[in-house]
UniProtKB/TrEMBL annotation:
Organism: Nostoc cf. commune SO-36
Protein's name according to its UniProt entry: Phospholipase
Residue span(s) of domain Phospholipase/carboxylesterase/thioesterase: 80-193
Keywords: Signal
PANTHER family, A to Z: BLL1128 PROTEIN (PTHR43037:SF1), UNNAMED PRODUCT-RELATED (PTHR43037)
Top-rank taxon: Bacteria
InterPro entries registered for this protein in UniProt: AB_hydrolase_fold, Plant_Biomass_Hydrol_Est, PLipase/COase/thioEstase
Length: 216
């Protein structure tokens, strides 16, 4: 079950960790796509990771999904995302060395940017149906080499060529990055339901940990 929260900056959906889970627990922070911007946060529950969390039994991780206003991007609101992360770590039983950042489409672009700008804050990155911002230089991508990355894309995604994503994968692997690139043969742009409900990915989310906790 997810609960709507209002913060000073961005409203967000929140789901606490299962009472039976070990604490402190991982945090999965999700950034939505362009179509879910606005003032009705319940649109996030229609699909993808928010719907999976909302329809599942309590999970072994804390979950949060902020919402953007119309016309804005996650790059615009980078500082607010980090402020939300800090607030959650302070107020919830979260292990700061086990924070996973994930995004879909527009949210993936934001996740790449935020993770590259704050690489010591995240234990993993999950990128679904989204491109790396053109403003992100290869030298900035190299900052992600210590973060395990899962990339998912549909082979029939008309918005994003496979070749573009493969180029990013090659750059990351070239600097020693740990990247898994999964192409769904029959998938189009909207593969979030299939990706996030996969048991292997759900296990991966709670299996990642940075070598040392980062003070906040």
């Amino acid at each position: 079950m997810t609960i709507e929260h209002r913060s000073a900056s961005l409203p967000y959906l929140f789901s606490p960790v299962s009472e039976e889970a070990n604490k402190p627990a991982p945090l999965v922070l999700f950034l939505h796509g362009a179509r879910d911007r606005g003032t009705d946060i319940n649109v996030l529950l229609k699909w993808g990771l928010p719907r999976f969390v909302d329809s599942s039994s309590p999970l072994p991780y804390v979950f949060a999904a902020p919402q953007l206003p119309e016309g804005q991007t996650w790059v615009d609101r980078e500082s607010d995302v980090i402020a939300l992360l800090d607030n959650l770590i302070t107020s919830q039983p979260i292990d700061p060395s086990r924070v996973i950042l994930s995004g879909f489409s527009l949210g993936t672009a934001g996740a790449w940017h935020i993770a590259a700008s704050h690489p010591t804050r995240f234990a993993g990155l999950v990128a679904v149906s989204g491109r790396v911002p053109k403003t992100l230089e290869p030298s900035q991508l190299a900052a992600l080499k210590e973060i395990p990355i899962q990339i998912f894309q549909g082979a029939k995604d008309e918005k994003l060529p496979i070749e573009d994503t493969q180029q990013i994968v090659d750059i990351l692997r070239g600097v020693g990055g740990r990247v898994d690139f999964t192409v769904l043969p029959e998938g189009d742009h909207f593969i979030a339901d299939e990706v996030y409900s996969d048991s292997k990915l759900q296990q991966w989310l709670i299996s990642q940990s940075r070598r040392t906790s980062v003070a906040v």
